[in-house]
Design goal:
Helix content is about 45%, strand content about 20%. It is α/β, with parallel strands linked by helices. InterPro entries: Dehydroquinate_synthase (IPR050071), DHQ_synth_AroB (IPR016037), DHQ_synth_fam (IPR030963), DHQS/DOIS_N (IPR030960), DHQS_C (IPR056179).
Length: about 350
Amino acid sequence: MKTLHVGLDDRSYDIHIAPGLLSQAGALCRAALPRAGRLAVVTDSHVGPLYGETIMSSLAGAGFQAELVTIPAGESSKCLSMLGRLYDAFTAQGLTRSDGVVALGGGVVGDLAGFAAATILRGVDFVQIPTTLLAQVDSSVGGKVAIDLPAGKNLAGAFWQPRLVLMDPACLRTLDDKTFSDGMAEVIKYGCIRDRAFFDFLCAHSSRAAVMEHIESVLYTCCDIKRQVVEEDERDTGVRMILNFGHTVGHAFEKAGGYETWTHGQAVAAGMVAAERLGAALGVSDGDGFSELLEVLSAFGLPTHIDCDWSAIVEAVGLDKKGDGEAITMIFLSHMGRALPMKMKKEDVLQNLAHVCGR
């Protein structure tokens, strides 16, 4: 088993990576939550039938009174009404502040269940058990939890670190190719912003089969990069912003498609390309690795360009969480493997984006 320790004082936790880890969830959760008697296990309609029984049996064997709460699969469940449904389920179960929540699923489940845990009873412990590639390398680590609002993605949320993260690479075998590629956008992002050698490795292993041969190392590398960044800047006020490379425009693509036309990974992939084009136009990106970025994204079936209603771009930039008054911090690459945060006026971002997008 590969283990990473996220060192955040009293908010520290371990990330465990190993095949077959789901069957050990009970013992590992008991060690992380020694006082808990009840656990609410939140999953979705796709993941529950696959792994719910294994998790519930393991938790029962460790002495937990666990109840399964299943939400509809999909981004539309990351909403206020579903948050209320979780609150009702938690209170009906009799959850107390010494109990906990387990998020079993992809990014939607982790974000929603984590936000519910952060806010019910002013905060209860929770455990992340991510089952998609995107959730394993990104959303399950770092303590950002949120729901979407009609105005935009992840606009209501909190920083609430998990007590434990369990990653079973075997779960990835059940993903369809589109969902696997969705996660690869975030995997590629890590190489772009922090590790040129890892980026080159991905370019040389640009298929699902090739990545899966090294999947434990891939997961470990991505989580280790995120661990370093989060330990340095837990609250997203400095270096942690580099994790948002491709996300400012990417979130606009998602919103313009009603969170159904383009997945998060697809939107981020096209967003990274847009950011690189913008960086080159501004003279802050040297273009190193740009052609390779286009090639590796395409190899995983990810888009390098998305046609989008320009008003959605304008609205998303205005609401971006990295904004500060009339300014916003954009993330560029000075060169491949090195992210460059740059504060810009929002009007300048839009003007230059319009130019590189041919508006």
